[in-house]
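Figure 3 (text version): structure tokens given as input.
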């Protein structure tokens, strides 16, 4: 992990693009997505100081798209006062910032709200979202402000309150854009006062402008075409992800802190014990005398540190276990494979949309045929191969990520094409085996069908229907 944006941070470009695409659709979620995934490639403080200026620009662009949709009166009277009171209270309780229990409880609270709303939206006939009662409305906004003042992550609960009040998705996105402009403007001013915002960080932010432009372009189109129910489902899925990410980050931070405390405690105890009970050259502790009487028992550093050493040994054993190492390696391979698949889909779907523009389903145009071919397995494999060639041609200064991604796409293209060729040979064999296992040869024959001009199969004494003649 580094504190500067360089060529080795190529995955961060795709993460930021996905974050801006998401916020362009639903109006929020870019910060939590970037922090959750991007912190693995860049230090959190360095990431935020480079991301917040772009997020401020994104909110301004979204507001400029529909300025009249922003519910400024509702925001000024029904949201900002309660959030401001909560934020001031949270800033006054800065001594509780180290409390991971509160952050964990808040994350679980967000997960619960999201699950309840998803359950309501997934019903066969979902009920319409109704505004919260006034008391609960203001209590949740104050809670969101408190958490935002303490931990800087109170946005999800504020979004939940607004989603229950604003039923029009364009109004919700524009109103949230105003809110993020205010909050991120204050955060950017804080970065400037503290000297964390510099020409170097702004230059790094400028390198991410293509991700912003493409995310806004695609996201705005999807926002206009997305039906209301999928839009609501996406909002609550993002809230579920935000709450889960908060719970996971808090739990991992607690686990890391616990392991670090154990190590520091063990080292401190080892130093203190060696001072009190110096070891004899032959390995036994010297006898200690108190008041002229020898101590009847002998203490050593190993006996004093036995519980802590056992816990550290167990943890170290679990982390270094071959199964754990194998799972870590498999997870890394799966992450690269997922990145390759998503890159292919991210390239294919917009390309198919452009080729199919203004064409009907039965159109015989050549570009329609190309678009249909790209949606097949062979077309996807061919596209993966072309992307692999393009990534392989990138200069070595771009880091190892393009070459690793090119390898994954190359393997994917070969595997998919090989599977298609194998289906030519194995397909008939599988059908014969399935036919044999179903035992269709011994299945009862279907009843004969009566056809015009034939009534030979009719029982005696039964008259033939009109239009059916006997032979």
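Below: residues designed for each position.
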């Amino acid at each position: 992990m580094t504190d500067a944006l360089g060529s080795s941070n190529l995955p961060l470009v795709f993460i930021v693009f996905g974050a801006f695409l998401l916020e362009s659709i639903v109006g929020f979620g870019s910060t939590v997505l970037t922090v959750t995934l991007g912190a693995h490639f860049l230090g959190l403080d360095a990431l935020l100081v480079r991301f917040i200026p772009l997020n401020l620009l994104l909110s301004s662009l979204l507001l400029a798209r529909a300025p009249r949709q922003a519910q400024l009166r509702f925001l000024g009277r029904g949201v900002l006062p309660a959030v401001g009171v909560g934020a001031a209270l949270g800033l006054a309780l800065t001594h509780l910032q180290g409390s991971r229990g509160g952050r964990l409880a808040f994350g679980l609270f967000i997960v619960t709200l999201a699950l309840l709303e998803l359950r309501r939206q997934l019903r066969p006939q979902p009920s319409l979202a109704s505004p919260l009662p006034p008391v609960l409305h203001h209590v949740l906004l104050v809670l969101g402000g408190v958490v935002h003042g303490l931990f800087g992550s109170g946005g999800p609960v504020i979004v939940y309150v607004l989603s229950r009040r604003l039923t029009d998705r364009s109004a919700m996105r524009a109103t949230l854009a105003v809110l993020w402009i205010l909050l991120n403007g204050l955060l950017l001013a804080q970065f400037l006062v503290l000297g964390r915002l510099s020409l170097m960080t702004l230059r790094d932010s400028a390198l991410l402008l293509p991700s912003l432009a493409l995310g806004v372009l695609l996201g705005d189109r999807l926002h206009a075409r997305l039906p209301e129910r999928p839009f609501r489902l996406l909002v609550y899925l993002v809230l579920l992800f935000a709450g889960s990410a908060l719970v996971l980050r808090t739990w991992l931070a607690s686990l890391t802190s616990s392991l670090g405390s154990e190590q520091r405690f063990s080292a401190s105890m080892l130093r203190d014990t060696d001072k009190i009970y110096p070891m004899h050259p032959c390995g036994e502790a010297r006898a200690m005398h108190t008041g002229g009487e020898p101590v009847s028992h002998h203490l050593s550093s190993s006996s004093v540190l036995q519980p802590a050493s056992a816990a550290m040994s167990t943890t170290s054993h679990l982390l270094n276990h071959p199964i754990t190492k194998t799972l870590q390696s498999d997870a890394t391979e799966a992450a690269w494979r997922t990145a390759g698949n998503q890159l292919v889909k991210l390239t294919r779907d917009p390309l198919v949309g452009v080729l199919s523009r203004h064409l009907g389903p039965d159109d015989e145009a050549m570009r329609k045929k190309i678009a249909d071919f790209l949606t097949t397995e062979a077309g996807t494999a061919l596209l993966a191969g072309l992307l692999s060639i393009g990534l392989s041609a990138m200069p070595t200064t771009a880091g190892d990520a393009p070459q690793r991604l090119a390898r994954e796409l190359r393997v994917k293209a070969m595997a998919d094409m090989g599977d298609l060729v194998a289906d030519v040979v194995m397909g008939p064999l599988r059908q014969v085996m399935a036919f044999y296992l179903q035992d269709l040869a011994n299945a009862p024959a279907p009843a004969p069908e009566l056809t015009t001009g034939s009534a030979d199969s009719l029982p005696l004494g039964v008259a033939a229907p009109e239009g059916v003649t006997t032979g």
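The mean pLDDT is 74.
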